Amino acid sequence: MAEEKMNSDKMWVTMGPQHPFSHGLWTLRVEVDGEIITDAEPEVGYLHRGWEKECENRTYNKIIPMADRLCYSASMTWSHLFCKVAEEALDIEVPERAQYLRVVADEICRIQSHLMWLAAVGTDVGNLTIFLWALREREFMLDLNVRLCGQRLTTNYPRIGGVRNDMPYYFERDCMRAIERFEKSLWDIIRLTDDSSIFVGRMKGIGYITRKDVANYGITGPAMRGCGVDYDIRRDDPYDAYGEMEFEVPVLKEGDAYSRYMVRIEEMFQSCEIIRQAMKKLESIPKNAPYRLKVPKCIPEGTHMARIEDPRGEGLMYLVSDGTESPYRLKVRSPVFVNVSASKHMVQGVRIADIPAIMAMIDMCLGETDR
Amino acid sequence: MAYESITNFIVNRGYEDLIAMSPYEVYNLPYDIAVKIWESLGGLIAWLINLIFPNNGVSQWLISDPVTNGFAIILMVIVIFAVSFVFCLLMLWEERKVLGRMMDRRGTMVGLKGFLQCLGDGLKTFMKENVVPKAIDKKIYWWGLSLVIGTSVLLACMVPLSNRWFIVDYQAGLLIIFALFALAPFLILCAGWAQNNKYSLIGGLRAAELMISYEIPMLILLAGTVLMAGSFNINDIVAYQEEHIWFVIPQIIGFFTCIVCAVAESERVPFDLSEAEAELVEGWQTEYAGMKWGLIMLGDYFRGYVACALVVFMYLGGWSLPVIGGEDWYLQYFPEIVFLLKVALVFFIFVLARAALPRVRTDQILNVGWKALMPLSVINLAIVILLKVTGVM
Amino acid sequence: MSEDANIIEKPSRDDIVSLVKAEFGGKVEFIESTKKNIKAINEGRRLFMKADREVLHDLAKYLHDKLNFEQASSVAGVDWVDHMQVVYHLTNYCTSMVVEITVDIPNDDLHIASVSDIWEGANWHERETYELFGIVFDGHPKLERLLTPKSYEFFPFRKSYKLRGQE
Amino acid sequence: MKYLDKYPKKFKGTGVIAPLGKVLRHFFTKTVPHRPVTILYPYEKEWVPDNYRGRPGLRFDRCLGCGICERVCPTTCIELVDVADDEGKMVKRPQVNLGRCMMCGYCAEYCPVDAMTTTTDYELAEFTRQDLIYDPRRLNFEYTTDMMEVHIEEHLMSNIAKGITDQPTAFYKTDRPVLEDSKCISCSKCAKVCPVNAIEMIVVGQNDKGKDIKRPKIDDKVCISCANCVIDCPKDALKMNEVL
Predict the structure, then answer these.
(1) For position A115, what pLDDT does the model report?
(2) Which of A306, D82, A44 is nearest to C74 (CA)?
């Protein structure tokens, strides 16, 4: 095989694990013919730390802050997901106030995660202004996180049976202000991206996936909705208070990198809408209403499954409990883990310059991929 | 007499003597400065020698006209280089501060509003380990690097700041600058190949690919300017613009096309394909570590300076300024500063483009080059010819 | 998908139960959840079944081709010490039904048919399960270690693999 | 939809004017007349609210040395050590290894007497690893306010089923150890390890050899549900009764 490769005009370029385009530690080995990519092979596992095995030795409460660390920018949804699977095991629904608080926290997390992604897109296409403007907006979302739960990234906010604390004073006011400001500033960033023919030209027409392939490869999240699959767990398999929220799920049929980009931008606007609705609902719930249930330390025996719409796709946890304080087995289905396995399919026939643009649309997060 | 007074050795030559002694036909300011430096420096040395060996011939020889001329020419080159070098650092500072403010941050903060940061960066790159990979083509690796930097520095020194600040007043001034400018992609290709690294090879290939898309429109634009002014000589072009009108007004299309080409020529964002850091790590510079990289960086700014200067010469009237109240005082004191300010202004547009636009792809730059820049430059040329034929200009 | 006339795009929970029972008989067993308060289970968006190892591939193909389960969400291994288990989660986009298939494998014969020819998305999940539990998926195109180094010779997620501090 | 209704748009001519103009306007209207949003970190600091989860803080006088924080810590960075209190008596107090601390705030949340708090202190860099170990006295944070306490306000599921929603409680108010009488061997270890002296050994009779048979009596009002007795019981006679 080696000799054959030596004699051909093609060469293998190893992009990663330390490469500016790979946000995190992973490798994409690509075979290029000039600048055109003919083959590719993703390699992950540099960050594998046996997360699932580690959980088997920890009590349920101790896993919540660990679940935060699965993904630095979507920490809220991961700890939420873990709490959901534990609640499913305990067969309880959390109080109404906690449900809405979780929705607000989740959507703040989704916005800041998408902004992190937008910043990464900025660097990948070579414009640092997008990067810094997006991070500037993200900072306001992180400030909301700080107000709500005391930390910027590793929030540790959901608890099994509710949330850690109620809203602090004036949180509604701060939240509404931040959302309003954010919506205005996002239009500013859109002026740099969608109004720029260079940016659109770099995004359009690369990394096509058909609807059939998306389902077959198991790609989920905005990447899936950008390819014509009209499916969102928040709407179709509602958890917590999402069933009562009214929002639209953006779906585009093109299936290229640009449509995936647009789906994410629209999702940020929809998230703002959800936060507004949830805040309005929270006003109608009395302030001293319960937001946290007292739950037993041990979770009854059985197998349990919960899933959630992570900013990157479908997060699924499968829990086997044996009646003790710690889980017997906890399986995490990470959306990026599946999405990146399809990268070979996506980069076929594009140029080297397109790889960062296509891979940015997966929104890599290696913490949850390698677990 | 045991020793003579130091004033005997320091000759203060007048304007007439200077013109008579100098190799130039017209007054040259850096030459004047260099002569002044040598008069004090050489006079001091001659006086010191005379203290030890009284009445020797060397002291007299040191302050004689031919020797002063010789040393003055060496010193003049240093003066010219130092000015362009410092101005490049100023441009670097301008870029960092302006870019920072555009991105809603502060830019560099070290000393003198951040200007001393470039000195710190320079020092840092010089202190770095000089890593040279083993499996390289040594000769081309080093020559490619040296020539890329060398041509950039040469170009920067060849740019005249005014009609009294130049090294040589060529008849083919603009043409030779263009010729040297176009040499770089070839050297980059060689350097990229010599490093035995896939990224740098692709970067070098991209530099060559990039060249054919902007070099031709650039030369057509040059033809427009030259046709209008009737000369390749920079002095003549500027004088013509001063006399009639800045070319930016009749050739407004050419001006904008030229800015795009100039950005591409100096390989800056959005046309920095050959060193696109998102996909090619550092492109053709990947294996040039430490101070080699620092020099390449500096060379890039030299080229940026020259590209801006070309735009100023061709469209913005060089060092000329529509002055009110007689031109004598202006020409006597600060045409160089006016020129440099104009260069900084054009560089501001470069920085703006860097802040607002993402990097283009290889096929896109070819598209832009052949489908937009090329026709625009031809249209510009047609307008120039029309104006010339009808005798408007 | 729609070119296949036999496909049922939106199978209800009862449809799936009756159709699968008719097709596979006693090889597939349905488990009723005892949970009362979970929204998704109450609204019939979850279906738990236990299948025999022999019929798994046919069952998967049937679910994919006939009942429109387009996506394999996850493939998980569980080590029950006396036997192993592979758990599949399959999703239908139209009804957002999630089917959980549990397959028992005896410890002395850790083989099971791969479903990566049906769903490409199961590919990496199966590789992961292979390297962490040592369950061999027959017919998998590239059954190599993915997350752990290629030189590993043990299967770290088995219960017999003790962590430091666990004796 | 707000965004998808307007985009993607068709470009007329060159589509670079809009971004250039946007950046230029931002430059002249926002960042040049006003200051940029960045702050000069070592000189300026961002304001953090009091509920910020920085390093753990300890109010020495309030602490009982019960060890709940040690057990609830996910990274086992808390260790109970013997220190002299103000009167010179040796007491057990938590010591925190900040090299391992993940700032989850569990210690403050689960502390029954709010001795552990979160603090707003986040500048924790030290030169050696040894310096990162904060002993109980060093854990004191002088600007501690009430906002830094974290309270658990849980509701019992049985209460909610009954419709009572205004009685927040916490595990240390409801959970109490219960004795399985047949397993008890009268060793009175539980009384010794109880940090609040809630357990009193009561003689209930005498055995065949004439020794006293003692049984623990737990004072429900004093008990803080720390489970030290449950863990240290040699015969597992005590069990924590979780009220749900």
Answers:
(1) 92
(2) A306
User: What percentage of chain A exceeds 70 in pLDDT?
Assistant: 98
Q: Is the alpha carbon torsion for A77, A78, A80, A81 positive or negative?
A: positive
Each domain of chain A, given as residue ranges in start order, spans 2-370
- A314 forms bridges with which residues in the sheet? A309
Domain hosting residue D137, numbered range: 56-148
Q: Exposed, middle or buried by CB within 10 Å (0-12, 13-18, 19+), for D49? A: middle
- Is A331 strand, coil or helix? strand
Residue D88 makes CB contacts below 8 A (sequence gap 6+) with none
Spell out the residues 6+ positions from residue D241 whose beta carbon is closer than 8 angstroms to its own: D175, D176, D177, D178
Judge if B103 and B179 occupy the same domain.
no
Enumerate the residues of chain D whose CB falls inside 8 A of the CB of residue A289. Answer: 165
What is the spatial distance between Cα D97 and Cα D110, in angstroms, rounded to a whole number? 18
Residue C96 is classified by DSSP as: T
CB contact under 8 A, D20 and B102: no
CA nearest to A292, candidates D118, D175, D107, D160: D160
List, for residues A297-324, the tens digit of each pLDDT value: 888 888 888 888 889 888 899 999 888 8
- Domain-embedded: residue D8: no
Say how many domains are in chain B: 2
Q: What sign does the dihedral B9-B12-B17-B19 (CA atoms) show?
A: positive
CATH superfamily of C13-33+41-138: NADH:ubiquinone oxidoreductase Nqo5 subunit (3.30.460.80)
- Residue where a domain stops, chosen among B81, B96, B127: B127
What are residue A263's phi and psi, to 5 degrees? -60, -40
Instruction: State the CB neighbour count (10 A cutoff) for residue B266.
Output: 24
Distance CA A366, CA A358 (A): 17
Whichever domain contains D80, its CATH number is: 3.30.70.3270
Mark yes or no for CB contact B100/D16 under 8 Å: no
Compute the count of residue pairs across chains A and D with CB atoms less than 8 Å apart: 134
pLDDT digit string, tens, across residues A65-100: 988 888 888 888 999 999 989 988 888 888 888 999
Can you say whether the dihedral through the CA atoms of B157, B162, B164, B170 is positive or negative?
Answer: positive
Chain B 72-101, CB below 8 Å of chain D: which residues? Answer: 98, 100-101
Owning domain of residue B4: 1-127
pLDDT digits (tens, 9 = 90+) for D112-152: 888 889 888 888 888 999 999 998 888 888 888 888 888 88
- Does A have 3 or more CB contacts under 8 Å with B? yes
Whether the ω angle into residue A17 lies within 30 degrees of 0, i.e. cis, is yes
Q: Is residue A313 exposed (0-12), middle (13-18) or buried (19+ Cβ within 10 Å)?
A: buried
Provide the domain count of chain D. Answer: 2
Q: Which of A196, A294, A325 to mutate to test the interface with D (most CBs of D within 10 A)?
A: A294
- The last residue of a domain, from among B96, B127, B158: B127
For the segment C5-47, what is each residue's pLDDT rounded down to a tens digit?
677 778 888 888 888 888 888 788 888 888 888 887 878 788 8
Break chain C into its structural domains and give their ranges: 13-33+41-138
Q: For A95-134, b where at least 16 C-beta lie within 10 A, e where not — what string? A: bbbbbbbbbbbbbbbbbbbbbbbbbbbbbbbbbbbbbbbb
Domain annotation covers residue D10: no
For chain A, say whether D76 makes contact (Cβ under 8 Å).
no
Strands A313-321, A327-333: pairing is antiparallel
Q: How many angstroms separate the CA of residue A336 from the nearest CA in chain B?
A: 21
Do A132 and B103 make contact, defined as CB atoms within 8 angstroms?
A: yes
What's the CA gap between D216 and A7, in Å, rounded?
A: 85
CATH of domain A2-370: 1.10.645.10
Residue D243 at interface with chain A, using a CB cutoff of 8 Å: yes
